[in-house]
Amino acid sequence: MAVSDTDLIRAWTRVLELSRLKAGDAVTVLTSDHTHAQTLRCAITAAGMLGARVSRLDLPPVNGDKALSRDPLAYLGTTPLTNNPPAIAALKASDLVLDLMTLLFSPEQHEILQGGTKILLAVEPPEVLLRMVPTAADRTRVMAGVALLKAGRKLHVRSPAGTDLHCPYGEYPITAEYGFVDEPGRWDHWPSGFAFTWPNEGQAHGRIVLDKGDVLLPMKSYVGEPIALIVQEGFVTRIEGGQEAEMLREYIESFEDPEAYAISHIGWGLQKRAYWSTLGLYDREGTIGMDARAVSGNFLFSLGPNNEAGGDRTTACHIDIPMRRCTVSVDGLEVVRDGRVVEERMAPAEAGHA
Hints:
Elements: H1 5-18, E1 26-31, H2 37-49, E2 53-58, H3 85-92, E3 96-99, H4 107-114, E4 118-121, H5 126-131, H6 136-150, E5 154-158, E6 164-168, E7 175-177, E8 187-189, E9 194-197, E10 205-210, E11 215-216, E12 221-222, E13 227-232, E14 235-241, H7 243-253, E15 263-269, H8 290-294, E16 299-303, E17 319-323, E18 327-330, E19 333-337, E20 340-341
Parallel strand pairs: 1-2, 1-3, 3-4, 4-8
Antiparallel strand pairs: 5-6, 5-18, 6-10, 7-9, 9-15, 10-13, 11-12, 13-14, 15-16, 16-17, 18-19, 19-20
């Protein structure tokens, strides 16, 4: 259902206030051909009403000849900022970048963040943004998850379908996504709500069994039959199952990159206003699937790059897989049980920023 400009401007105003936008701050709105027009005009209006100096930087799309779909996460690495020093300079000179284009998994983004610029990604449809306007309580909940991860060194995931995955971690940062950017050099994504990290290099092992109703992204499809992933020394070494397993293998093989099989980020969703069913209510080009990524109680893992965490894997293939009905333990302590967050673990204790 469509939303009014008034409601979306109010939502943007709230997010910008949580992101500590001040009068006089330089805001650059990063856009491309697929940027949602209502999101753009409401973001500019809200930032201007708060006294920011607002500019728009519109860049042409890239990777269209390489990607197998129109999803902005279907092919990573090269971005409109690659070999584009003037554009990078404009973003580095900004206090806040509102990314309505999808700038991810790129060295240019790291360079911009390292200079203290904040970046907020927002590319879901306006009604999804409105439903999941972030709150201070979202931050508190996610930071409790971060604190649990910081206190541990091993993530263990089990499910009735047969998942038994072991992920020692600690080599890479613990990351919080709660939907706003309240510190210099911070990146976040509106909407979101999850805590995650990356396994130690070469140490993830076990078996992942995707069951009916789990989600494959960027395919934006619900799994209809079991798919088993055998994980050894940090990589998926076999993909077993029927037709859907065959299609998943074909998709990964199309990148011709062995790093595409690496286990990337691991964690669990904490957003109570996200829903599994939402993906089925949009066509495949209408959303990037943030509901499934953030829904409270999921186990979310990915395959592919780890350069966002400071690693050296830069494969263009990135697959996010949110799973239902898993039990997730940190050093033996259950934080998700049978697909539901163990709420007493999510005490409102500050853990500091990741």
